[in-house]
Each structure stands twice: as C-alpha cells, then as structure tokens.
Amino acid sequence: MTGGVITIIHSAWDLATVREPRMSVTTQETIAFDEHAETEQP
Questions:
Q1: Whole-angstrom Cα distance, residue 33 to residue 30?
Q2: Count of alpha carbons within 13 angstroms of residue 36, beta-carbon side
Q3: How far apart are CA 38 and CA 29, in angstroms?
Q4: If you ran DSSP here, which 8-state letter would residue 11 be given?
Q5: Collapsing DSSP states into helix, strand and coil, what is residue 42?
Q6: Nearby residues of 19 by Cβ (< 8 Å), 6 or more positions away
Q7: Torsions phi, psi of 33, nearest 5?
Q8: Residues 1-42: pLDDT tens digits?
Q9: How far is residue 30's CA from residue 40's CA, in Å, rounded to a whole number?
C-alpha cells in the first residue's frame, strides 16, 4: 500500500517536472513571437 502511494506521488512529480519546462518554453516562444510582431509593424 505504501509503495503504491509513493509510486503515484513519484509519477505525478515526474509529470510536473516534464510539463514545467515545456510550458516555460512555450512562454518564451510566445514572447519572442510578440516581439517579432511588434518589430514588423510599420
């Protein structure tokens, strides 16, 4: 029982760790796109 709980917490932690960098990369891409769009405006 305890081992199963630890496994669930561990896999949830892995998902959060994998998801976090992906979201920060998406944010950086969005910021870069916004800056690029502002630069292209006449």
A1: 5
A2: 6
A3: 14
A4: H
A5: coil
A6: none
A7: -65, -40
A8: 566 776 777 777 776 666 665 555 566 666 666 665 566 555
A9: 15
The pair of structure tokens assigned to 1 is: 């029982």
Number of H helices, E strands in the chain: 1, 0
Q: What is the pLDDT of residue 25?
A: 58
The type of residue at 11 is S
In degrees rounded to 5, what are phi and psi of residue 41?
-65, 140
Q: What is the dihedral of CA 8, 11, 16, 19, to 10 degrees?
A: -140
Residue that the structure tokens 């760790």 belong to: 17
